[in-house]
Each structure stands twice: as C-alpha cells, then as structure tokens.
Amino acid sequence: MELRHLRYFLAVAEEGQFTRAAERLAMQQPPLSQQVRLLEEELGFDLFMRLPRGVVLTPAGEAFAQDAQRLIEGLQQAAERAKRIARGEIGTVAIGLTSSAGFHPLTTEAIREFRRLHPDVAVDLTDLNAAEVNERLITGLVHVAFLRKPVERPTGLSFAMLDEEPMVVVLPDGHPLLKRRRGTPPEVALDTLANEDFILVRRPGAPGMYADILAACRQAGFSPNIAREVPRMLLGIRLVAAGLGVTLVPASMQRYSQVGVVYCRLKKPPALTAPLHFGYPDALKDDTASNGAASRFVDFVLEHYRARGVR
What we know:
It comes from Paraburkholderia megapolitana. The protein has 311 residues and is of the alpha/beta class.
C-alpha cells in the first residue's frame, strides 16, 4: 500500500465519482479506477459501491476513510514540523556560559531577545569554565558558548568578540583603602594592592584572564601573592566577603550583590579589561547545519551583537 493510493481513494470518496476525482488529481479516469481496485484487492474488501451515476462508500470504506484521513493529516503535520525544525523555528539550543560571562547584560539580553523572537525554540544553559568550552563545543554537548577569553582556537571553532569592559577590584567591607570614601567607592591603584592576598580563578579554568591579571600586576611593579585559586568568580567574591583576600572581576560582575564587599574602579594605567566572546562551531554557519535552531541563534547573535568582528 502506497501513500498515493490513499490520496486516490480519499479523492474519490470526497467527489463521489471517479471522473471528477480524476480531474482533481490531474490524471485519467481509467488508471484511477485501476489503482483504487488494486487497493481494494490488497485490503480484501470493497471500499465503494459502484452506482450508475457515481460511487458511495461501503461501511468498511467509511471507517477506512476516517483512518486514512487522520493518517494523511498526521503525515502533513509531521512534514511541517520537520520543515520548521530544519528552518530553526523549533528545536533546542544548548548554551554554555562561564560564570562571569553569564553576568554580562549582553549575554542575557541576547538569549531573552532570541526567545522572544523564537518562542518554540527551547534553551538549555550549562555553567562551564573557559577550559571546558572548547571540548563541549567540539563534542556537541553545547552548541554555542559565551565566555571571556578562549583558552585556544582549534580548527573548526570560531570566537567573535562581542564587547570589552574594564576590570574592577573587589575589597572586603572595612578594608583600609575604603576608610576615606564618602558614598562612592574610591578608585584603587593596582600597586596599592601589592601586599594583599589575591583570590583568582585557577589557571586551568581561565588561563587567559589569569595571565592578564599577573601581567598587569607586574606592570604595576609587583608580583601578586596568590593566596587562593577558586573554580568560579562567584566563589572568589564570597571569599573576599569573608575577609580572605581581594580579587579582580569584570565590571558587570557588580550585578552580583554580595553583602560584605565593595567594588572599586581601577585607576589607569594599567588598562586591565575583560572581553566577552561568543564561541560556536563553524559548521553552524553552513547552510546544511544539522541543528537549525542553533544555526539560527548563531546568525542572530552575530548579526545583532557582534561589535568588533571575529578575532
């Protein structure tokens, strides 16, 4: 039994006549009659009672017509759903986020605006460190990622820089550098932190930013005492609140309102900044990308948010 046989049968059932059904199907009447007869032989019962001026469904034919119509409609719905998935209108985008990248307003804005435009696309978020991003992108465990600085740039992955923001110093409330402040937190010169205990995200997790902070300290004339290394910036801020040291974070991390800490701008020089990158497999820019929703998300971010080009 072929799908065309069902379409032929339903056309005849709806028209009540082979001649009109043949015209509707743009075919000759004798071949149509033959195909319907072959369907009846395969089923083992008559679908129609042949009358001098047309046909009517038998009771078995009526039951078969109802099920055949549902089958045709189900196939049409399945085809339309598959088309929407291929076009990226339905599906899932798995997004990896490093903790500090997740606090950048551009990241949340991009995800929120994409969901507004494409409400039938689901979004899964996974918290990662920078060292995990490449592996997850390559293996497909995440489709795209927002991070500060890529650890490396392997073939097959691209990273677009979306923004760049200053770093700020995080001091525990009551720190001597805050004693003379009047409302607004003071600017802090990096060299005034020479004798402080630094809390940094450990080098394997964020080697790029770790190296940038060390280089800035050396430029300021000292080598920082790294008292603790943590897996995530949020933990570093909490440790500062506990009085265990100081840390440096991107300015957008000030959105994390941790009791017991004060965020202070850095005096320049040095110009210590934190970029925001968007990473994705090159295959998602291909017209034949297997995940239409993820491909559509890549196009959306690059079109609306890329400020400085792929680097």
